[in-house]
Design brief:
Low-confidence stretches: none
CATH architecture: 2-Layer Sandwich
Largest sheet: 4 strands, mixed
Oligomer: single chain
Shape: globular
Order of helices and strands: EHHHEEEH
Number of strands: 4
Radius of gyration: 13 Å
Strand content: 15-25%
CATH topology: YaeB-like fold
Length: 103
């Protein structure tokens, strides 16, 4: 399994989503979201090549793949590096994803 290294933007995405879920649906749902992201990270670390390259192509960026976060409308965007997985962002499906990735 490759080590997962989230960028600051990805950590901020997760924090913002968890805060939203805590405010809107309670702490249990917020914790469930964080656990679902961690589960997605484990899957990505075990099988990085299985993520979809679709959004990277839409943003005209070479390399990013995405994996859906189970039970939540979020995608984890990452790039496989030689020794680790570089997590770029964790974005809601209704965001302008190509624009967010292009930043």
């Amino acid at each position: 399994m490759k080590r997962i290294v989230p960028r600051l933007a990805a950590e901020q995405d997760i924090d913002a989503a968890a805060d939203y879920y805590a405010d809107q649906a309670g702490d249990d749902i917020a914790h469930g979201f964080v656990e679902a992201v961690r589960s997605a990270y484990r899957t990505i670390g075990d099988r990085p090549g299985t993520g979809s390259p679709r959004y990277g192509k839409l943003a005209d960026i070479d390399g990013p793949r995405s994996r859906k976060v189970a039970r939540f409308p979020y995608l984890v965007f990452y790039v496989e590096r030689e020794h680790h997985i570089d997590v770029l962002r964790v974005l809601h499906l209704h965001r302008d994803i190509p624009a967010a990735l292009g930043k």
